Automatic annotation (TrEMBL):
TM helices/strands, residue ranges: none
PANTHER family given in the database record: 2-KETO-3-DEOXY-L-RHAMNONATE ALDOLASE, PHOSPHOENOLPYRUVATE CARBOXYLASE FAMILY PROTEIN
MF terms (GO), sorted A to Z: aldehyde-lyase activity; metal ion binding
Natural source organism: Pseudaminobacter soli (ex Zhang et al. 2022)
Coiled-coil positions: none
Entry protein name: HpcH/HpaI aldolase/citrate lyase family protein
The organism's place on the tree of life at top rank: Bacteria
Domain HpcH/HpaI aldolase/citrate lyase, chain residue ranges per copy: 17-237
Family, per entry: Belongs to the HpcH/HpaI aldolase family.
Amino acid sequence: MNLQERLAADQVVFTAWSGVPDALTVEIMALQGFDAVTLDMQHGGHHEDSVLRSVVPVRHAGKHAIVRIPVGRFDMASRALDFGAEAVIAPMVNSVADARLFAESMKYPPVGGRSWGPTFGFARMGGTSQMDWLRSMNTATVSFAMIETRSALEDLDGILATPGIDAIFLGPSDFSIAWTNGAAINPTLEDMMEAVSDIAARARKAGKYAGIFVMDAAYTGRYVEMGYRFLALGNEQRCMALGAEALITGARESIAGRKVDGVDADPYASASRSGS
Ligand code: 3PY
Ligand code: MG
């Protein structure tokens, strides 16, 4: 199943978040247990060349390749699709006008104005007939409009009603900054959870999909209960930090209390005892 079919089937989809613009690193992320990898061009280091190269290991691992474009770079949305991405996440879609521009770049006529030229994507996605591609791609690709400001919230129904917008993706960090008028950054701010829940409900009611960036894995169940199905998890830094912490903790626990030739096997235990 492609990403759109999985979301239509109401499946939970977990995406890794990649900010290291290197196809070998993306390959490692793609080979973990995620369903998809999102290549981040907004705050991550990905750029056109790294996206062009990184879609390959993601698809090779049987995962969905997704790109988050920089703010307002709707030209890059079409290019990401031409490179073989299945979905594009556009940050800071703050109005119906933004949503229209995004949809225009994501969908072929008559829905939008995407220009023809899937130079890499056609072969990467197993295309066989240009007409089939033209006919199928408007539904097979997923456009996620990011909701992360007060103006986006005010225009939510219009954004959801925009032809060619398939889904919303909530950015809880920016949303918390907007929610508190710049007083705080707290992606799990309890005070905004009702709004976070309402956004998913309104998206689903409009027949669109809802996604969110999960900053704290413990909130995942709550988000799924609210109606979010597309859930973005950690980037390379977070995965490495968690993995390294688990490894080093496991190794320390394993040697704690053991002696080698009468000396503590745990170098940190001896070091702290000697005061160094
Ligand atoms: C946000 O939380 O603002 C994001 O953009 C997450 O990716
Ligand atoms: Mg954001």
